[in-house]
Amino acid sequence: MKAWGAAAVERHEIEVFLALAEELHFRRTSERLGLAQGRVSQTIKKLERRIGVPLFERTSRRVALTPTGRQLREDLLPVHQQLLRAVDRAVAMGRGITGVLRVGYSSPMVAEVLLKAADVFRDRYPDCAVEVQEVQLSDPFGPLRGGRLDLQVTEHPVDEPDLTLGPVVISEPRVLMVPAGHRFARRASVSLEDLAEATLIPVAGDVPQYWLDHHYPRRTPRGVPVAHGQAATYWTEIMNLVGLEGGVSPACKDAERYYARPDVAWVPFRDAPTVDYGFVWPATTENARVRAFVDTVRAL
Known about the structure:
12 strands, single chain, D-Maltodextrin-Binding Protein, domain 2, Arc Repressor Mutant, subunit A, alpha/beta
């Protein structure tokens, strides 16, 4: 395919030139483009012959742009980026990656990831808007089943016949939130067996029993009963029931960054599974928008 200019420069020559102008290293450029190093060198020499002047200064130690090379890069880079955006946009429209994609999350760590991915996604697919919103733990799948969300990232386990389970996005160590004055707060770590010595604060609402059993067990691994206290509908209620009422509740380690308070201590578990957050979406509504956004998050 012939491209810009009276010199009839090939498009692949432009791509090789821009990659080398960024990397300033022939081996890294060849690896980046999936080309043999000799092919990169030949392409640059051919381009320089077309233009009539050197574009790079080459020594045994370094590769640098000449003044002409710098000017050519400044002129070509925005044109090349515009071309790529145009192609991406055409592909996106062909695949149906348009309209509005509504994505849910149940924790602030996940929100960070999704918001960053949304920025990248909007840049790549400008005809598809992304709306990111919180999902309450007390109704983890209601917005998906009600059509208010297209997909979400939520805590595992998920075992719902009408929902498709996608890849894990975040995996975090599990900790136990305890009152700051509790004897557990003075320990370096706690065990799942220690839950028998405390009152566990569970989540209330339309939550699957298997999910509750996983995060808020009624018995320890050895079969010792675990007392349950008042159930909470919102995360802030859990924090209050721990800090002010003396209960305990599991959480992921990174949650402390967002919810730290002086009356709550965060003690690591030494034998508990990680808290895993993964994609889930209705099995009947998977589409190109969903797949493209999942791929964007995985790439990040």
